[in-house]
Design goal:
The chain is mainly α. The protein has 22 helices and no strands. It has one domain: Growth Hormone, Chain: A, CATH 1.20.1250. Helices cover about 80% and strands about 0% of the residues. The protein is globular and about 60 Å long. Its main location: membrane. It is found in: Cell membrane.
């Protein structure tokens, strides 16, 4: 039978939906991680001269503050996505990210205006926190709802593919700048370049996302009723799922930020690699990590989500201390790369499927809010503070304490994975329910 265009929007152009959700997510996370990647260059620009680790602690503190805005962004933009649509939320978040990147690009330095420059940096990070707090949920919900039920794990894995590509672009640009500009120029003004690129990229994605189709699941809910959509009152009916998302996120987010954003600093500050070598290791390791996501996502579509989560939890709990200890004593780029890839293989058990797992736990009327708020809270408490905690332990002369902290967080999440229900077969829209009934949690 010829296709007369009557198929659901989510089925007509699945790859367009994946690309539209992912490319914006890529730019969002490029800007988010550009701050972490270039912090070693602009830390001295916004704070008085002194100990380099102390300056990094100050910039890491502002990095963490951005995370504490994510619950606010998760609440506001999650509610917005459940009431106005996934597409509308995706467009709004990328607009906010463009503004925040532009603010960092033009922020005055300590030498020019004193601590006022750090104030501009702080405001930009607050806007980034709001934006990313909503972006994760809108993107995870959109990618999951727009996918065929048998391919949700595979399709939603592109969220972390796009996040990783954003990091790779940032790291790639950093390597280009490191090799094409004098060190003094990078510290003086070169660090502003990636934020200009991010602001322009976000503006381009704004127009791309305007052409996205809304998901079938949201359109069904929108036609059924507007009452209670995206409200905290409706979310309270799903307290167990709320706490479940926080617990399953805890270990994953700490491990993820340890082996991605903090890895470059760890290899240069603790292992003694040069900054350019540390950046190269991160770039190559993340390239492998990016390729692993769709394969692991597809595997979860066959065997379920829980086996991958359990493998991550056990691997991170048992492997973190020996891996970070070994990374601290590497003597070559090859050794650092091998250990970094091993760590990221373990982390893939969480990153490749966490988006769809969380979306599969909630009904459509509170799905974006249900994903956004507990995830953002867990990130604020554990992910956003991971780098700060690591540097605090280092500054206190007890760096191995951080290794045990990461392993302990993974242990808590492992208990959650062992006791939670399988979510792979959850129905997200009417067509997936027996008899065509509306989907429910």
């Amino acid at each position: 039978m010829p296709d007369n265009g009557a198929r659901p929007a989510a089925r007509r152009t699945p790859w367009k939906a994946v690309l539209g959700g992912s490319i914006g997510n890529m730019v969002e996370w490029y800007d988010w991680f550009a701050y972490a990647s270039f912090a070693t260059y602009f830390a001295a620009a916004f704070f008085p001269k002194g100990d380099a680790t102390a300056q990094l602690l100050n910039t890491a503190g502002i990095f963490a503050v951005g995370f504490f805005m994510r619950p606010v962004g998760g609440w506001l933009l999650g509610r917005y996505a459940d009431r106005r649509g996934r597409k509308a939320a995706l467009t709004l978040t990328v607009t906010m990210m463009s503004l925040s990147a532009l603010l960092i690009a033009v922020a005055p330095t300590y030498a020019q205006v004193g601590y006022a420059g750090a104030g501009v940096l702080l405001v930009a990070r607050l806007i980034q926190g709001l934006s990313v707090g909503g972006e994760y949920a809108a993107s995870a919900t959109y990618l999951t709802e727009a996918s065929h039920p048998a391919r949700r794990g595979f399709s939603s894995s592109f969220q972390y593919v796009s996040m990783t590509v954003g990091q790779l672009i940032g790291l790639g640009l950093q390597m280009v700048l490191q090799r094409s500009m004098p060190e003094e120029a990078l510290h003086a003004w070169g660090w502003r370049i990636p934020f200009v690129v991010g602001a322009i990229g976000a503006a381009v994605v704004f127009y791309i996302r305007r052409g996205l189709l809304e998901t079938e699941a949201f359109e069904e809910e929108e036609q059924a009723t507007a009452a209670g959509r995206g409200t905290l009152r409706a979310l309270r009916a799903h307290k167990r799922e709320f706490l479940l998302v926080m617990a399953l996120t805890m270990g994953g987010t700490v491990a993820y930020y340890t082996y991605t954003t903090y890895l470059t600093k760890y290899l240069s500050n603790s292992a003694g690699l040069t900054r350019s070598d540390a950046t190269l290791v991160s770039f190559l390791a993340l390239s492998v990590f990016c390729l692993l996501q769709p394969a692991a996502g597809a595997l979860s579509d066959r065997v379920g989500r829980r086996p991958l989560l359990i493998a991550f939890g056990a691997g991170s709990m048992l492997g973190t201390v020996p891996l970070l200890t070994a990374l601290r004593h590497v003597t070559s780029v090859g050794q650092a790369l091998l250990l970094s890839v091993a760590a990221l293989v373990i982390v893939t058990g969480y990153t490749s499927i966490n988006a769809c797992v969380k979306a599969e736990l909630f009904p459509t009327q509170v799905r974006a809010l249900g994903v956004a708020l507990p995830y953002a809270l867990a990130n604020a408490l554990f992910g956003g503070t991971a780098e700060y905690v690591a540097l605090w332990f280092k500054n206190a002369g007890a760096e191995p304490g951080f290794y045990w902290y990461v392993a302990g967080c993974a242990a808590v999440s492992l208990v959650t994975y062992l006791t939670m229900r399988e979510t792979r077969d959850a129905a997200l829209r009417r067509s997936e329910q027996p008899g065509g009934q509306p989907a429910a949690a």
